[in-house]
User: Fold this.
Amino acid sequence: MTTPAFKRVLLKLSGEALAANQGFGVDTARIHEVAAELADVQKLGVQLAIVVGGGNFFRGVADQARDMDRVSADHMGMLATVINALALQDADFRRRHGQPLLLYRHRRISAGDGDQGRGDSQSHQG
Assistant:
């Protein structure tokens, strides 16, 4: 077994990498390849933190969004990031178990209701 150089890795995946040759959206074959590669790294004992971009969706509609309000455009980018994260999560779980399920810990983010720290205690594990 190979000894990893690092125990923890922060990986930034661009949205464009998940779109592969399509240039827009999520390429299903590519996202399953990425999930398998990440699983191989985890098998080495490396803890992964993954940041997923959303450029495969938002940049694909940038011409239509050129005159949009900046806040609306930012919201579109955030939604694209969530779409990619869900696609990667689903691909990883299907690879492991053959069916989708909420797998990763999600931190609840709320504005002003005092629940900022509750996310970990309410997270679900597959």
In short: The first helix runs from residue 15 to 19.
